[in-house]
Amino acid sequence: MLKSKTFVKKKRAGGVMKIVREHYLRDDIWCGSEVCSACKQESTVLQRDACIESSLCSYPHYVIPDTNVVLHQIDVLEDVMIRNVIILQTVLQEVRHRSAPVYKRLKDIIHEKEKHFYTFTNEHHRETFIEREPGESANDRNDRAIRVAAQWYSQHLKTSDSEADGLKVVLLTNDQGNKQKAEESGLLVFRCEEYIKSLIGNPELVDRLALSSDDKNEITSSKVLFPEHLPLSRIQAGIKSGTFLQGTFRASRDNYLEATVFVQGEGEDSTEVLIQGLQNLNRAVYQDVVAVQLLPRDQWVAPSSVVLQDEGSAKDDTEEEEEKALKISAAEAARKPTGRVVGIIKRNWRPLCGMLNPSQIKESTRHLFTPADRRIPRIRIETRQASTLAGQRIMVAIDGWPRHSRYPNGHFVRSLGNAGEKDTEQEVLLLEHDVPHQAFSQAVLSFLPKMPWAITPEDMVRREDLRHLTVCSVDPPGCTDIDDALHCRELDNGNLEVGVHIADVSHFIRPGNALDKEAANRGTTVYLCGKRIDMVPELLSSNLCSLRSNVERMAFSCIWEMNHNAEILKTRFTKSVINSKASLTYAEAQMRIDDTTKNDDITKSLRGLNKLAKILKRKRIEKGALTLSSLEVRFHIDSETHDPIDLQTKELMETNSMVEEFMLLANISVAQKIYDEFPDCAMLRKHPAPPPSNYDILLKAGKSKEVEIHTDSAKALADSLDVARVDGFPYFNTLLRILATRCMMQAVYFCSGMDSDFHHYGLASPIYTHFTSPIRRYADIIVHRLLAVAIGADSTYPDLMDKQKQSALANNLNYRHKMAQYAQRASVAFHTQLFFKSRGILNEEGFVLFVRKNAIIVLIPKFGLEGTVFFDAKDKAAPNLVFDEEGPTLKVEQHTFHIFDKVKVTISLDASNIQHQKIRMALIDPVIPGVSVPAPDVEPQTKKPKLDR
Q1: Using an 8 Å Cβ cutoff, are 327 and 340 in contact?
Q2: If both were cysteines, with which of 263, 313, 521, 691 could 247 make a disulfide (CB 3.0 to 4.6 Å apart)?
Q3: Cα–Cα dist 503/346, whole Å
Q4: What letter would DSSP give residue 705?
C-alpha cells in the first residue's frame, strides 16, 4: 500500500519545486512476540513469560515507553531487570533527532539479546500508521501514534493466541495529557515513576529515576538564588543583534566562583569572557553552550590567582565568599572582558563519576554528590543506599538546576567500586575522559580475518616483494603494536636507498563496516600506565598488523633515493610485503651502532640511518624547527602486585631521534603527495603559531636571568633557546624549554579544503600529516586510503572525497586525541600517588616553575613531578605577589621567590580526601619562620613530550 505526500518547496533562484514523498505501508510487519501465531515471523524477541514482579501489574506484560521516558529514563531502561520492552519506530526516530548519546545507548540495549527489546516499525504498518491532522502539532501527532500502536498491540495479542489472554501491554508516559487520553482509550497506562516504584525485585532501581519537573521543586528552597534564563527566542535575537555572545562555558578547576566563556570568532578574533560570582555563572555547567552579556567596562575584573574550592557546606548564602573572591581579583592589574550568563543554548551534561557525601541528618534520603572533576558543581541526589555507597565511586546524572537551589539536582546511575582501588580508579579515569573502552562487539569482531591467516599469491600480485631487504624496527621496551620499520642500503650508483615501512592497516579495515566505524569513533589508542586501550582489536594491533621480526607482513612503504648529504633525489610509494629481520628497543639499537665489533647487515643499516638522521635533524633545526622539552616518567611495575616500585624520568638516546627523523620525513613526503592529488580533501595536520601574549611568561623568565629570548618566529625562538645558558645553572636551558612547551598551541588535524593555513610551527614545515602509526591513530588510516588512491593501489569511496565529512572526522579525532592525552596524564598522576604512598616522606630538590598569589608551583626533575607549595594568607606575614619587568615575584616574610629559583621540599601523599588524593609539597629550604605551609590543593601534572610523529 502506497501513501504519498506532495508539497512545494521554494528554490534559491525564486522558483518553486514540487516534491512527492512516498510512504509504503505493509501488512506483513511482525509483532515480535513468542505468543503470537498470527504473524509469520522467523524469530521472536518478546518472551511468552514476560513476568516482572510488580505491585501494580501482577500479570505478564510488555512495556511501551514514550519518547520522553526513553530520553530521561535511559539509566532505568539499561537495568538488567527491565526486559520485554517494545520500542516504537516513532520513539526511535524522535530520540535520534533529539539526543545522539541516548540514541546510541538505546541501540546498544536493543542489540542485547537477553534484554528482549523489540523495535516495531509502526510508521510502516498499515494498521498503526496515522496521518497528521489539520492543526495538530508534530508532538501531539507522535503521542497519538504511540497510543494507536499500544492499542493495536493490546488487540493483536488478545486475538492472536488463546495463551495470550493474561498478557497485557503497559504504556509508560510522564505526560499528563497523553496519560489522560490513553486512559480514555482504555489503555493500561502508568507514569514511569509509579511503575518503577511498584517493582518488587529491585528497590534500588528507584534511585536511578531522573527527577520529573514535579519532583524538582521538592528539593529546592523558597529563596530565589539565580536570575531566570532567557527563552531561546530572546537569546537568538540577542546574538543576531550583537547584544549577547555565544560560547562554550569553561569552569575553573581552582576557583568554583570563576569561569571563562570561549567565544569562537573568525581567524584570530576568538575571545574569552571572564565570569565571576554565582549569580553571573547562573547555573551553567562545564562545556554547556551559553549566551553571555558583557558587563560595562568599569565592571571588568582580572582572573583570580587564588585557589578557592567549594567545600560543600550545603548553605545557600555565599555572599561573603563571593566578596572575598571578587576583591582578590579586582585588585589585580590585567582586567579582562567580563560578563554574565543570561541563558543556556545547549546543555552538554554527561554521567559523572564521583563520591557521595552522606547527609548528617538521620534517615534523610537527600545527599550531596561531589564529582571527581573539580569543574563540575556538587549535585543533590535522592538515594536510599547512602550507607552502602559511602566510600564508593559512583556515577550520577544531572536532571536539572532550579533557580531556588544552590546545586543542580540529579540521580544515581551506578556504582563503580571502592574508591582508591586500582581497577575502580582506572574505570573512573576512562569514563571521565570519555575514552571508549568497552570490549569490541561481535559485529566489530566479525570483520576480522579468519585464522590461520597468510599472505596469498593474489595479495602478492598487487604488492612489491621487499622481503629480501634488511628491514628492522626500533621501539620502546615491551612494544607489541609495531607500526613502523626501516631500512637503509647502498645502491650500485653510490647513493643510498632508505625505506620507511608502515603497517598496512587499511588492507584489513575496509571503509564503512562496523570495524571501521568503531576505529573512527575511538580515534586513537590510549596508553595508560600498565594498560593499553586499543583502537583496533588485538588480533590486528599486536599480531597481523604488527611488524614483528621474522614474519611476513603487509606494509605501505615510502622509499627515497638519497645522496650522502641526506638530499632526496627520488621518492616513491608502494604497497609491499616485508619480513623484518629484527625488533629492537632503542637501547639495543644504540648498542649495535656503538659496538665497533659488529658489522652485520642490520647494524650497517642502522648506522646509515643514524648518520642520515643527524643531517636531517640539523637541516630541520636550521629551518627553525623547535626542540622543546617536557619531563616524561617511566614506572617500573611489580610483576605480581602491579604497583609501581620505581619511578624515573625517561632517557632519550640517538636512536630515538633517528626513528623520529625518518617518521617526520615520511609524514611530510606523504602530506605533499596526497595534497597534490586531492587538494580539497587531504587529511593534514597543522600546528598554529602561538599568539605573542603566550610568550609573556617565557620572556620574563629569560629576563630574570638576563637572557634574551626572541619570539618573532619559530627560528628566532629556536636560536635563542639554543644559546640560553646561565653559568652555574646547567638545568636552566631545560627549564626554559619546558616553559616554552607550555606556551605552544595544540597541533590539530584538518581537511585541506576547509583551511588555508597548513603550516606546522613546531616542525617548521609548510605541510604535514600523520602516516606512520595507523595501528594506533585513525587519521593515519585515512591518509593511507588517500595515498593508496593516489598511486592507484586502491579504489576511492564517497566519504573520502567529501570535505565536510572529512572535516567532521578531523574534529572528532582532535577531541579523542586531546582526551587520550589527559587520560594518560591522569594515569601517571595516579601511579605517582601509589608510588609515594609506599615511600612515605621524601626530601627532594626542585625549581619554581610558576609564581601565584598565594603559592609557588614547583617542578621536581628527578620524578618529572609538579606540585604546589601554598602560603596561607592568614599567616602573620601574608604573601605578597608583585609584577615587575622581571616577571611575577612572591614575597613571603623576608624571602622573595622568582621563577626558576632552586628550592628543597618534602614530598608525601595527602590521602585525607580519598577522592582527591594529592601529592603534598612543603618547603624546607629556604626556611621561612612563622609561616605555616598547608597541603597543596592542585593535583600534580606530568607532561608528555610533544613529539608530533
Answers
A1: no
A2: 263
A3: 42
A4: T
